[in-house]
Amino acid sequence: MTRPASTSTAPALVAVIVANAALAFGPLFVRLADTGPVAAAFWRIALAVPVLAGIALATRKPATVAPSWRTWLFVALAGVAFAADLGTWHLGIIHTTMANATLLGNSATFLFPLWGFLVARAWPTRMQGAALLLAAAGAALLMGRSYQLDPRHLAGDLLCIVAGVLYALYFILMSDVRRALAPWPALALSSLASLLPLLGFALILGERIVPQHWPPLIALAIVCQLVGQGCMIYALGRLSPLVVGLALLIQPTVAAAIGWVHFSEALGAPDFVGIAMIAAALVLVRDTRRDANEPPAAHPVPEEKR
After folding, report:
1. How confident is the model at residue 134 (pLDDT cuts 50, 70, 90)?
2. Which residue has the higher pLDDT, 240 or 172?
3. For 55-92, what is each residue's pLDDT tens digit?
4. Rounded to whole angstroms, what are the CA distances from 214 to 59, 126, 242, 269?
């Protein structure tokens, strides 16, 4: 028997790599913004929603089946989860180091694949387990020198861990939404649903809402929301939770490079070894993707909606 063409998942693999590289710039733009951290999250969404809506309308295809009430409910819940994730993470970015925020905020790296195995009612294969362990060891090695348990950073660290849990919840909800909606409509609707919660959160905290300098917020919207989340939602409909979860480890890698360039935090030999371990883990996952434990295929993504 011949294997399915490996190029079928190549665009999704490229998309998930681009997504995580773009999302790694989020902490930098949040710190450069002159608004409150949650207000920065609000503008990230508000500036991106018109573009997302335009792309969604331009790429709209006739639906064979109208979205169910479950789909609309999950879109709304995903928007609230994403708002809570962004707001909590942005607060954590301000109160801890950039490295800690990126690493702890990506707790979904491990939670999302575990959800995939739970839904499939199956343990990961030995190769998949080895890939997870290799990626985890690489991330620990990469961030070990900069990650410090400092009491002054404890609040920020805890906020970022909570954000990671909320990020995994967002992935779980959007994986279900992507079975019924194409990527751009799904992202546009969930982004729209996150606007009011973010604005309300920022007002409750008494943050400054309107900025004097727009470039960091515009960059945050374009790089993180349009490019980052756009590519991520596209990949969610085509890759297994294990692959998506491991790809999330790209963010700490890119964040370390940003710290090296922007804050003169030089990378040493352990950092490059960690990057190589993460890359090897991604290769192992790709070679074993036919055995990946994915959610049950009772509700496959319709081909015409991909």
Report:
1. confident
2. 172
3. 888 887 766 567 788 888 999 999 999 999 999 999 99
4. 29, 49, 37, 38
- pTM given for the model: 0.74
Find where tokens 């991106």 sit: 48
Mean pLDDT of the chain: 78
Say how many CA atoms lie within 13 Å of 193 toward its Cβ.
20
| Residue 6 placed within a domain | no
Q: How far apart are CA 148 and CA 119, in angstroms?
A: 35
Residue 4 binned pLDDT confidence (cut-offs 50, 70, 90) = very low
Helix-strand-coil split of the chain, %, nearest 5: 75, 0, 25
Q: Is there a domain that residue 5 lies in?
A: no
Residue 305 lies in a domain: no
Q: HEC profile for 60-88?
A: CCCCCCCCCHHHHHHHHHHHHHHHHHHHH
CB-count exposure of residue 5 (10 Å: 0-12, 13-18, 19+): exposed
Judge whether 159 and 281 are in contact, CB under 8 Å: no
Number of domains in the chain: 1
Amino acid 195: pLDDT = 95
| Per-residue pLDDT, 125 | 73
**CB of 265 closer than 8 Å to CB of 145:** no
**How high is the pLDDT of residue 108?**
64
Domain annotation covers residue 200: yes
Q: How far is CA 118 from CA 115, 159, 213, 237, 242, in A?
A: 5, 26, 46, 18, 12
Residue 117 and residue 286: Cα distance in Å, rounded?
17
Domain carrying residue 260? 15-296
CA distance 265 to 262: 8
**8 Å CB contact between 305 and 182:** yes
User: Per-residue pLDDT for 269 more than 90?
Assistant: no
Query: Quick one: 201 exposed, middle or buried, by C-beta within 10 A (0-12, 13-18, 19+)?
Result: buried
